[in-house]
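Handout, section B. The chain below has 536 residues.
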Amino acid sequence: MHLPRHNLRALAIRLGGAVLALSSIVAVTTARTLPASAAPALSWRDCGGGFECATAPVPLDYDDPYGRAIDIAVIRHPATDPAHRIGSLFFNPGGPGDSGTQALPPYYSYFPASVRARFDVVSFDPRGVGASTAVQCYPSLADEQQALAGTPAAFPVGRTEERNWIRVFAGFDRACGGRAAELLPHLSTANVARDMDLLRQDVGDERLSYLGVSYGTYLGATYANLFPGRVRALVLDGNIDPVAAATGYGDQARQLAVTLRFGQDLGMARTLRAFLDLCGTADPSACVFSAGSPSATRAKYTELLQRLRAHPVNAGGQAYTYDLTVGLVGEILYAVEPTPGGLPGWASLGTFLQQLWTAGAQSTATPLHALPTHPPAPLPAPGLLTAAETYAGPEQEHAITCSDFPNPRNPESYRAQAAYAYARSGAFGLWRTWAMEPCATWPATDADRYAGPWNRPTAAPILVVGNTTDPGTPYPNSVAMVHRLARARLLTVEGYGHTAFLNPSTCADTYETAYLTNGTLPPPDTTCPQDHRPFG
């Protein structure tokens, strides 16, 4: 589960690595049919860098498996030791709305060498996303940008901006309902799990091996409970409490947005405090934003936000507003060290904050080198990487989040939710609340979504991994996931950032490799260190 409806990562990173030219389909235009039990026939083709790509037809509606079909874009890297190949390892990079075909190439090296040797590593763009049959609510990106013009980059501040946000996204949702009406009712995580099971059959695996991070843990838990007998090995890293997401506890779903139900704002606030405290004790050469102590550095950050709320800082042609800065900070907290996808790391976050501190309202100083200077475009919510398609808008996140997870349907309620969240987590509470407000008027839900139970006994146990200071999926969610699943073991990583995958631990990799290759779980209560501590 990831972040804003604007692509703040367009400012936080420059996409790198292999970019695959895979065409996106706007709507369901094919009349092909599929038999009820048929796995898609994949014709693999070379797509550069050692990767192979294919397109898989799957049923639009699994209740009508002989009806229309849609396309799923698939990518794989064959096992580097084919003589000792075990099978395929499916990978979901998170989201909702993230492109697996874009994420796998730059992050392939993050898989341990022994895993790459024994498995074909496979990923795909979920239905509605990227190069698969995709949701698009406007004829072009320019049309969408015009429709969203005047809305803030991350969240509204004050009643005027709030009213405009609600009005604009009500119109946005109407456009989606008109243009993508056939596709929208079929985009639940459960249907993505059904697609993945067809892909499993096509690659010839009797049971599924899988690594899911962030939202990918919810997909993994859904698969495990829809197809419990087909689980070979599932690693769920950076977890979402499935009950909190799918239904909430008690009356939560009618009162709180899904991001607040699983405490994403709290995870961000806790991670920010850790960043500021560690920065405050670090040598200034390692964290230039340090004010000499944890308390002084926290106070400095509070004052910086107060300044930005009053007067944006202009740097390198970009106006860094209060809301944009909050969103960028939340993004960069995801990775302690720079990543292949371009997240700059915590040391660069300190540099960025110090530049804003010193720039002044009229400064023309150059911003953080990793931040492009153009305004943020309204692209999909970021995960490990966002799709680099010609036009992939925020609707690809909303189409899954709003149809799969219940959210309050009264737009005016988001003001009260934001006030509640601000009181408990500061500005991140505003961000994570208003990111979900478009769900208030979203035009479709999926009747086939899965909402539990979550404890169906699986053919093999599941390995759950959680960072203790994770901004995107707070550690208590990983504890909850272990308790929800029938057969699961928790591996704790004492570390910072979103997922152990993005913030590597050789210790955790060793346990994950043993589990994936031969089914060996770590001992109960195992804890691993992170490889790189913040600021050295």
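Note. Confidence is low (pLDDT under 50) at residues 13-33, 361-390. Compare this with the example in section A.
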